[in-house]
Each structure stands twice: as C-alpha cells, then as structure tokens.
C-alpha cells in the first residue's frame, strides 16, 4: 500500500509537468513615425518568415498571449524577456516584457529611442529575436520569433578622459653617467690649498718664541681641536654628509668654538703681556 504523502507528491509532479506554457496569437506590426502601418503579420512558430526590416524612425510592436497548454486559460509567468542576438558580433540584449494577469503581453520598440539594452549593430547585422518565458510552476518556454534588420548604431561618443585609459608608452629612465674623478695632480693641488692655513698658523706660532710651549696649554688646545674638527667636518661633507647635516653639526661646533676661542684669546693675551 502506498503512502498518502507519496501519492500526493507524485500527483503534484505529474500536474507540474502536465501544465506547460504555450504561446497564442503572436503577431508583429511595423509602423512609420506618423502611425501608418507598414507591415503586420502573425508570427509562425513552425515556419520562419522573411526578416523584419526597421527604419531609423520606425516602431515595432509585438503582441502575444501566454496560456497554459495549447488553447488553455491565460497565465501570468514570473518573467518574460525578448532577446536580440547578433550572430556576427555575438552581442545580445535582453528586454523585459510585461505580461498581464490574463497572459496578454505587448512589447514596443521605437528605433528613434532604442533601449539601452539594445545591442550595437553594424550594416550587416541581422538580429535573431526570441522570446524567453520563465515560471516557477511551469516548464520554461523559449521560442524563436523572427529575424530583425535595423539601421547600424551610431558609434559611441568618446569621453574626454578616454585617452587616459589607453595603453601608455613605456617609461624609460635615462641615468646619468658615473661621475668622473679629477686627475691626481688637481686633487693634490687643492688638498694643499686646504692645508695651507694650517701651515700659516704653525708659522705664526713659531714667531711667538720663546712663549711657544705655553701655546699648547690646556686652555688653548681645545680651540685648536675645534678648528681641526671643522676641517674634518668639511671632509666628511665631501664624502657622505648632506648640507643640512653640515649646518647642524657646524652650528654645534661654532658654539664650542666661541667659548674655547674666548678662553684661548685670554690665554694668548696673558702670554703677550708676559713677553713684553
């Protein structure tokens, strides 16, 4: 003995597959902008008719009714779309169709204002128009209606910033050649010029005889060491430091030089008084 639940389930499945959607009285009409009818024919679902041609201002109207089984009552599916497919470019567009509660539907395409979902076309394009209907309680329905020839679409106007999104030329960096070092003779000459003030300083010290030994006292050596630090700072700047670092370190050495120099001048003054 079969279970009552199983019987109900089998009956539901049988009724679902028994109720199929059908298309009744499909028809298309082409009219001019002033309303004159250019062509009006029923759509045959078994025999393909000649392509439908539209002008730049023509209007296409498609009407049909969705029924349950052939000759049954009209039903409203959950969704219905007209698909326009270009077999050459592969572009397609879906346009929803509103179906009333009794299954009747009407779609209108005005070539003067085509919908945004309409695919771009070329002079050789032939659009295949098909109807796709979906329902939760019926098998889906897909039928080919007719071929459609429309004027070629206008090229899309370029955006002012479109050029920024194109591939750009490859950026190539040109590096400067390595810096050339001056000849050894030139380096020696300028090194001698840098050291020349020290030669002059030692010569002046030698003229303070017999008080020369006192110049190396603890009150004068710090100032001399500060001058030597300035020389080392300039060499370091030439090798590695930046200008901001040199100014920072030089400011610190300058403060030290003020105090050590004042002490050294006082000590030299005492030496001069003692030598008179």
TrEMBL record:
One of its GO terms (biological process) is protein N-linked glycosylation. Residues 1-20 form the signal peptide. It is a multi-pass membrane protein. It comes from Thelephora terrestris. Belongs to the SWP1 family. This is Ribophorin II. Its main location: endoplasmic reticulum. Residues 175-270 form the Ribophorin II C-terminal domain. It is found in: Endoplasmic reticulum membrane. Residues 50-145 form the Ribophorin II third domain. Keywords: Endoplasmic reticulum, Membrane, Signal, Transmembrane, Transmembrane helix. The chain crosses the membrane at residues 184-208, 220-239, 245-265. InterPro entries: Ribophorin_II_3rd (IPR055374), Ribophorin_II_C (IPR056790), Swp1 (IPR008814). The keyword RNA-binding does not apply. Pathway: Protein modification; protein glycosylation. One of its GO terms (cellular component) is oligosaccharyltransferase complex. Subunit of the oligosaccharyl transferase (OST) complex that catalyzes the initial transfer of a defined glycan (Glc(3)Man(9)GlcNAc(2) in eukaryotes) from the lipid carrier dolichol-pyrophosphate to an asparagine residue within an Asn-X-Ser/Thr consensus motif in nascent polypeptide chains, the first step in protein N-glycosylation. N-glycosylation occurs cotranslationally and the complex associates with the Sec61 complex at the channel-forming translocon complex that mediates protein translocation across the endoplasmic reticulum (ER). All subunits are required for a maximal enzyme activity. It comes from the Eukaryota.
